[in-house]
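Researcher: I'd like a candidate sequence for this fold, 383 residues long. If you have to choose between options at a position, lean toward the conservative one.
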């Protein structure tokens, strides 16, 4: 029995079964269509929310179920098997919405959280800029107070849910002269339809095609001061607090995709024959498959222990950085090796390994690159 299975109850089993049935009937059949169009219909979000699968950790008063993070893991595991990336539930429920639930005031929570839980509000978080990725302190988007409003000017890029979002938590500089620079960063909620909030092009990516990723522009965008999360200058602190769960979620996404990659590779190599026997029986291939299975088992064991620590509220910054670096790199190795074992068939879009190979590549980049994770780890080692 795995570590997480030790805390799972009958309620967890029932939830997983209901979610899996829903996804099999309402999401997986549309995966190829969404991949071709490069975006997921907003109605799919509303339908998902109507089933109670969005933001389950929110209190019941805001439309959630008040359950623990282990339910987020179940959702992530099951939705990863749907062959699509556009219904970015974990990004919405476990990365963006926690900024509102943790740092929003009562009025803000009442205004936005019920819609986030129902699917009527799709959320995004805008940090990255053309010249500021991992170095958040270098961001240039500004918010200048003007009476009862903030006037925002700047540009964001590579924003997931950028086209579909109804609400975007935006990192801005409210004090351009702050020393250190990160002390001038604030988070402001910008709603779709706000004058001066412009959604730019939807990027044509290598993978994760059904998830809309876009440029966002702010041109004299006037936002009420009531949309500020917390106090001015608290944005960087908020980002650092929530990036750990984001990186844990990203690590789980990689882990599950690696497991699926091994499953489809085992199925293929056992059925595909060469020189009169299944290619899985050739020693070089069987050893490679054994190595893949071992790395995947190590990844899951580490992640489950880390998840239990996270649920318990322990300090997991260092280990989360380790997971984000190692698991995402491991998943890329697994996908590459799985494709190789498929031979020419692995290069064909009709085989699942091809999509996994494309989709997994971004995992070592988003939510903090592998290099930045190593930097964090080394600094926490006193290096």
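Model: Candidate sequence:
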């Amino acid at each position: 029995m795995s570590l997480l299975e030790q805390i799972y109850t009958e309620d967890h089993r029932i939830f997983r079964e209901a979610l899996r049935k829903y996804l099999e009937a309402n999401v997986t059949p549309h995966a190829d269509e969404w991949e071709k169009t490069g975006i997921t219909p907003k109605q799919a979000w509303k339908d998902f929310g109507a089933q109670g699968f969005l933001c389950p950790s929110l209190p019941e008063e805001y439309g959630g179920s008040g359950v623990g993070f282990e339910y987020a893991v179940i959702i992530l595991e099951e939705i990863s098997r749907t062959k699509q990336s556009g219904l970015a539930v974990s990004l919405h429920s476990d990365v963006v919405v926690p900024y509102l639930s943790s740092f929003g005031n009562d009025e803000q929570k009442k205004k936005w959280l019920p819609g986030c839980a129902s699917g009527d509000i799709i959320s995004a978080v805008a940090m990255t800029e053309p010249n500021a990725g991992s170095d958040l302190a270098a961001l240039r988007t500004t918010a200048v107070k003007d009476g009862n409003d903030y006037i925002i000017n700047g540009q964001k890029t590579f924003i997931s849910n950028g086209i579909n979002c109804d609400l975007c938590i935006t990192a801005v500089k409210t004090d351009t002269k702050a020393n250190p620079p990160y002390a001038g960063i604030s988070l402001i909620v910008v709603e779709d339809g706000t004058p001066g909030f412009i959604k730019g092009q939807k990027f044509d990516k290598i993978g994760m095609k059904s998830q809309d990723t876009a440029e966002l522009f702010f041109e004299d965008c006037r936002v009420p001061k009531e949309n500020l999360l917390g106090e001015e200058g608290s944005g960087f602190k908020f980002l650092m607090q929530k990036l750990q769960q984001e990186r844990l979620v990203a690590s789980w996404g990689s882990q599950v995709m690696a497991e699926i990659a091994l499953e489809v590779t085992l199925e293929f190599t056992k059925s595909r024959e060469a020189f009169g026997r299944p290619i899985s029986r050739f020693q070089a291939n069987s050893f490679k498959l054994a190595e893949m299975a071992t790395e995947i088992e190590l990844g899951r064991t580490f992640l489950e222990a880390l998840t239990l620590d996270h649920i318990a509220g322990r300090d997991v910054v260092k280990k989360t950085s380790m997971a984000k670096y190692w698991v995402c790199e491991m998943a890329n190795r697994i996908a590459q090796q799985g494709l190789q074992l498929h031979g020419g068939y692995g290069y064909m879009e009709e085989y699942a390994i091809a999509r996994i190979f494309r989709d997994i590549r971004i995992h070592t980049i988003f939510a903090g690159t592998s290099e930045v994770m190593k930097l964090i780890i080394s600094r926490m080692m006193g290096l």
